[in-house]
Task: inverse folding
């Protein structure tokens, strides 16, 4: 583990700890007021949409390494859908969990912290060329995974509502899902940004500055939110589920990307290394925002983020060693 990556991990830990202290000292209010949910709502409705719109409005779609992106996101999205399906089956068989829990677990397993941890890792290990490829992944990471998971959770909620109201037809359920998926604080800014991008309009400097300012708040806000959630929810009763999520994120996801990218798409060298290490990143804070938004598995998502972040100190060197052993 390089000094730069360790320093970044230490900064992340300190910021989370400040959130935990704020929660324990009740600086933002008592748990009954639920300031963690207030901060989560601010992130979900203000800061994350600004970040997503600015990213999609500015990204150069023609310059994206599409083969690399397909090799990365096909296995990751497939795993997300698989985890969601398995969790839905468990719920149908009587496991006690909210309707949104399968989607929250699916995004916790697949959504990586590719900004706070991924960027310094790519810079330190792969240099400027590797960082460029990593940023290409980052530019569409949230857009793809959050959009897919939003569709999954909204479909689950529409089904739940349909059953509660006497099982309306399939067309009504799909229409509700489509409406709630598109008119959504995650998906709508993505669609609007892509349309803006396709129109070649460009962002006026003032609007771009406002969006950049709002988007820059996402990372510190999310880290403080993790600390608050630890203080208010704790990890009691969530350790086993969180450890499973952390293990899947740190081991299963990068292994799957490695197999598909190398032996399915024939990628190797720098591109393969960047992809595997991006897949090996710990659970991202957006998983907690998603959990807060849908009132499901908040404690488990919080614990998974914390466990996987510190376990990353051990897992990252192992993946780098494995990549060095692979023949080129």
Result:
């Amino acid at each position: 583990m390089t000094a730069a990556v360790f320093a970044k991990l230490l900064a992340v830990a300190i910021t989370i700890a400040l959130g935990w202290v704020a929660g324990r000292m009740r600086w933002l209010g008592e748990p009954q007021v639920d300031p963690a949910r207030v901060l989560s709502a601010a992130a979900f409705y203000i800061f994350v949409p600004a970040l997503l719109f600015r990213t999609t409005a500015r990204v150069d779609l023609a310059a994206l390494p599409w083969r690399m992106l397909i090799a990365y996101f096909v296995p990751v999205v497939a795993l997300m859908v698989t985890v969601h399906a398995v969790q839905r089956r468990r719920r149908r068989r009587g496991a006690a969990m909210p309707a949104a829990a399968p989607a929250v677990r699916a995004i916790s397993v697949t959504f990586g912290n590719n900004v706070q941890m991924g960027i310094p890792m790519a810079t330190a290990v792969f240099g400027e060329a590797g960082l460029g490829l990593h940023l290409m992944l980052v530019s569409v990471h949230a857009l793809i995974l959050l959009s897919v998971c939003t569709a999954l959770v909204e479909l689950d909620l529409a089904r739940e509502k349909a059953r509660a109201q006497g099982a309306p037809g399939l067309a009504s359920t799909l229409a509700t899902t489509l409406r709630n998926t598109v008119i959504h604080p995650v998906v709508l800014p993505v669609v609007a940004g892509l349309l803006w991008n396709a129109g070649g309009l460009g962002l006026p400097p003032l609007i771009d500055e406002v969006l950049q300012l709002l988007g820059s708040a996402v990372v510190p806000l999310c880290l403080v939110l993790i600390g608050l959630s630890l203080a208010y929810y704790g990890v009691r009763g969530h350790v086993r589920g969180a450890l499973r999520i952390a293990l899947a994120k740190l081991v299963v996801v990068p292994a799957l990307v490695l197999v598909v990218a190398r032996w399915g798409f024939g990628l190797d060298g720098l591109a393969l290394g960047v992809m595997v290490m991006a897949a090996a990143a710990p659970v991202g804070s957006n998983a907690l925002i998603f959990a807060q938004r849908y009132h499901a598995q908040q404690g488990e998502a919080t614990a998974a983020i914390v466990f996987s972040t510190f376990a990353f100190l051990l897992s990252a060197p192992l993946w780098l060693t494995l990549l060095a052993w692979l023949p080129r």
Observations:
- The chain has one domain: 3-29+66-185+217-323.
